[in-house]
Structure formats: C-alpha cells, structure tokens
Design goal:
The chain is mostly beta strands and 264 residues long. It is 9% helix and 41% strand. The strands form two sheets. Strands 1, 2, 4, 5, 8, 13, 14, 15 and 17 form a nine-stranded antiparallel β-sheet that branches. Strands 3, 6, 7, 9, 10, 11, 12 and 16 form an eight-stranded antiparallel β-sheet that branches.
Length: 264
C-alpha cells in the first residue's frame, strides 16, 4: 500500500524545468469514492474535517473520465503536490490555469463553487487567482477574482448546467514586476484562436511562485460538478478539446389546440 501511495503522489509531481511546469489533474488515476480517501496524500481535506467530495466514475465530456460532485456542503480540498513543490514563474512565459465546471445551483448571493491559486512572492501577504461560479442578481455567472474571496475582476453570465472550461492566462513581466491576467470560458484548441478578456494584474517582488491550489464549495446548498483541474506553461496540456454547450433541447410533447380537435 505504501508503494502504491508513493507511486500515486509521484505521478502528480511534475519536476519544473527551465522551460516551464505542469500539474495536470484529470482525476483518472483514482477509483471512484471520496476524494480525500481515494487520492490520499494528493488531495487533502482542509482541517481533515467537513463534507466530502465524491469522485464520480464519469466525466463532463467525452474526453474526460472523472468529475467531482459538489453537492455535500461547504468544504475545501488542497492539492498537495503544488504545496510541496511550488511552481516558480518564468519571465515572459505564460501559464494557464483551467478547470471544467457544470453548475446547477448556487445557494445564495455570497456562495460559490471555485478553484483558486495563491501567488507567493518576496512580500508578505497573499494574492490570488480565483475562478468562481457564483450568482449575480439571481443569475449564474462565471467570475474571475484577483483579490479576496468573492472579488470581481470580470464576469459573464452562464446557463444552468452549462459545461464550461474556465481558463486563466498569466504572464510575469520581471522588468515591470507585474503578473498580468486574461481569461476565457470558451478556449479554442489552438491558443492563437482563443479570444481572451483582460482581467487585471498583480504587483510582485522577487521571483513569484504558485504556492497553493484549492477547490471549494462556499455554501451549504450549492450543486455542481467540477474537473479536470489543470495548471501548465503549455497551453495544449490545459486545453485538450473544445467544450461545446451541450444543453439538452427542451421537448414539448403537446400541441396547442387551435381548432376543435383533441389535444394530445
């Protein structure tokens, strides 16, 4: 068992090279079950308590094989490989942070389902990249935040149960000492065909690192599905397919009786 766990953890630790880094979590290396139990040492339940996240034996698209069930209440799980080996940014080398979502319901105006990265640098204090599925005037939105919880640096309306891949692109300028961000929920297979929306920037000191990745449901009544979660300096590792809006067409099995005939 110890050997199995060691191999499992190693499979998720990607050694950083001079050209970039890669942390790809498709969840297909685990058996179905509660995430913290089937991915021991990889996904850690915050404070080792609270609701679980079931890992389901099916994917959100034809090219994904696993997804997470966010219906059990408020919780947070951390991705240990990144905590153990933070990803150091490279000057002028873009990195990409992508997560699949399908959300049916968000319980309240301050609730959200999210994935987030923490940016660490030489100055104390946390800076964040937050992918958030939330509510805005009662409607579902995808929202990017670069500040505290619930921060808003851009948003777009989405449909109930719409499958999206939320991708954030970051680039560190080591001369200006800033990381600039853009984002999309409709990435193309080739980056040159992707339309990005500018989100904002972080000022940094020294060489910044990505030191934490967590997934979370903030709210007791949220209902959604999440996964895969991918972080890489290679766009093609994050975006592997074009995710189309596959909402089922409504079927109306009746016809309106405009004449004096029976209505089915």
């Amino acid at each position: 068992m110890l050997l199995l766990l060691t191999i499992m953890c190693f499979a998720h630790l990607k050694a950083q090279t001079t050209s970039g880094f890669s942390f790809i979590e498709n969840f297909d290396g685990y058996s179905p079950g509660d995430l913290h139990a089937v991915a021991t040492g990889v996904w850690l339940r915050e404070n080792n308590t609270g609701p679980v996240i079931p890992l389901l034996d099916r994917g959100l698209t034809t090219q994904t094989g696993r997804m997470l069930d966010f219906t059990r209440g408020g919780q947070t799980h951390d991705y240990a490989p990144l905590t153990q080996a933070p990803a150091e940014l490279l000057p002028n080398v873009p990195f990409y942070f992508g997560t699949y979502y399908k959300v049916a319901y968000i319980g309240g105006p301050n609730d959200r389902i999210r994935a987030a990265l923490r940016i660490d640098d030489a100055v104390a204090g946390d800076q964040w990249i937050r992918q958030q599925i939330a509510l805005d005037n009662g409607s579902l939105i995808a929202r990017i935040g670069l500040l505290g919880g619930g921060s808003d640096q851009g948003k777009v309306n989405i449909n109930i149960d719409q499958i999206i891949q939320f991708v954030v692109r970051g680039v560190w300028d080591d001369v200006a000492n800033v990381i600039t961000y853009s984002w999309t929920i409709a990435p193309a297979l080739q980056e040159e065909n992707t339309s990005w929306t500018v989100a904002g920037a972080h000022s940094v000191s020294g060489t910044p690192k990505i030191g934490r990745l967590f997934i979370s449901s903030s709210g007791a009544r949220n209902s959604g599905l999440l996964g895969p979660v991918r972080l890489s300096t290679t766009y093609a590792e994050v975006v592997t397919e074009v995710v189309t809006d596959n909402l089922p067409q409504a079927v109306f099995p009746y016809r309106i009786n405009f004449q004096d005939v029976a209505t089915l």
